[in-house]
Specification:
- With 371 residues, the chain is of the alpha+beta class.
- It folds into 3 domains: 102 residues, Rossmann fold (3-Layer(aba) Sandwich); 169 residues, ATP-grasp fold, B domain (D-amino Acid Aminotransferase, Chain A, domain 1, 2-Layer Sandwich); 68 residues, no CATH class.
- 32% of the residues lie in helices and 26% in strands.
- It has 10 helices and 16 strands.
- It has a 6-stranded antiparallel sheet with strand order 6-11-7-8-9-10. Strands 14-13-12-15-16 form a 5-stranded antiparallel sheet, sandwiched between helices. It has a 3-stranded parallel sheet with strand order 2-1-5, covered by helices on one side.
- A hairpin with a 5-residue loop joins β9 and β10.
- α9 runs antiparallel to α10.
- The longest helix has 38 residues.
- It is globular and about 65 Å long.
- The chain binds adenosine-5'-triphosphate and magnesium ion (MG).
Length: 371
């Protein structure tokens, strides 16, 4: 009936064949196999050559190891590849996949739009959802409304890199001071110093009683044809720093974080509800513009006036946040169990979506054979 192939980078000669995603792939493969389905992990390279047949790693449950064999056809592709942050400069989705018409979980168009902070926010601008004013840094930026009217900014690569190279900046006359280094950049030189970046108004986030800031992630997935919120969590850390895990952010449950801001139980519930509603609104809006989306990680910030701002849509959301919460011994057992369930459910949804794609693919193949 076909297989699900996960596109990912294979790190040869290391214990963790697929880097930080190795455990996730192993669990997903095991879960799929128990239901009689097979998963292959295929290196990005296989799609940059016209290799035939395509080879991949499949997990051997009996020997508890990966085997490198030909991928069974037909297959559908789940893209979990992340570009190398040192060499990545622009958004180049696999041309061979487009050319060869492979079926892919999140269509390439969706990944391309969501990877591009400027394009995705310009699209979301049409949805009525609040998001920070954003400009592309080019030679005209010095004349923008944003730089004239706001004082505090976030400068970030147009194609996100997990918090890498994101810096907070403040206006000083005709210059900007970068918070992390103290460097002063003249506004008229901004496009030389930050070519290919975007500049965004900085949202004044709500702080917890110990002075930490936070942002929120909601995982949306398509289940039975409908976009649904599967789970959410907060990332917390120091003021004026990106809160990505790679930059020192820490995962906490949204309840726990809001509790630390002295929100009442009722206000916590209302905020969680508002977060889910706005995430679903954003997800449904993106789905109304782009067909076939399977999952989105929607990021939000809560400001001092308790208003939610959409930060970005991620086309390859991680599940690590749920795992960390499931393992967090400082939270009650039922909370740990809840996050274990959320994570497992999100993985079952991957397998189910893949199987549905495969059955549609098989009926198309049969139809072509009949004709
Ligand atoms: N406008 C903003 N106001 C306040 N904080 C922000 C703003 N933009 C970004 N941040 C902080 O910086 C972090 C990183 O920003 P962002 O998610 O836009 O880039 P990225 O994580 O590098 O991109 P990607 O998630 O695509 O890899 C956010 O999670 C948030 O904590
Ligand atoms: Mg991000």
């Amino acid at each position: 009936m076909g297989t699900i192939c996960i596109i990912a980078t294979h790190y040869a000669r290391t214990k963790k064949l697929f880097g930080a995603q190795t455990g996730f792939f192993e669990e997903l493969s095991t879960m799929a196999m128990k239901d009689g389905h097979q998963i292959f992990i295929v290196d990005v390279d296989q799609f940059t050559k016209y290799s035939k047949p395509i080879k991949g790693f499949t997990f051997d449950l009996n020997h508890n190891c990966w085997k490198y064999i030909d991928c069974k056809r037909p297959f559908v592709l789940y893209d979990r590849s992340f570009p190398d942050i040192n060499t990545y400069t622009e958004n180049l989705p696999f041309p061979e996949i487009i050319e060869r018409n492979f079926t892919i979980f999140n269509p390439i168009k969706a990944t391309a739009i969501m990877n591009d902070k400027y394009q995705s926010l310009k699209l979301l601008e049409q949805s009525g959802i609040s998001f920070p004013k954003t400009e592309l840094i080019d030679s005209n930026v010095y004349d923008s409304e944003l730089l004239k009217t706001k004082n505090r900014f976030v400068i970030k690569p147009r194609f996100g890199m997990k918090g890498n190279d994101v810096c907070f900046a403040e206006k000083r006359g005709l210059s900007l001071e970068l918070n992390n280094t103290g460097e002063i950049v003249k506004i008229e030189h901004l496009h030389e110093r930050f070519k290919g970046y975007v500049i965004q108004e900085q949202i004044d986030t709500l702080f917890s009683s110990n002075g930490k800031s936070a942002d929120f992630r909601v995982l949306l997935q398509r289940i039975d044809g409908k976009i649904q919120a599967v789970g959410s969590y907060a990332r917390t850390g120091d003021k004026n720093l990106p809160l990505n895990l790679a930059c020192g952010g820490r995962i906490v449950s949204i309840e726990k974080w809001l509790y630390n801001t002295a929100f009442t139980h009722e206000k916590i519930e209302q905020t969680k509800e508002a977060l889910n509603t706005v995430a679903l609104e954003a997800g449904n809006f993106l789905c109304s513009r782009i067909n076939g989306i399977f999952e989105i990680g929607m990021d939000f910030i809560l400001d001092e006036d308790n208003k939610l701002w959409c930060l970005e849509a991620n086309s390859k959301p991680a599940r690590l946040g749920f795992k960390l919460l499931a393992m967090d011994k400082t939270t009650p057992l039922e909370s740990q169990k809840y996050f274990t369930d959320v994570r497992e459910q999100s993985m079952r949804n991957i397998i189910k979506f893949g199987q549905d794609l495969l059955s549609r693919l098989s009926s198309t193949i049969k139809l072509i054979q009949i004709q």
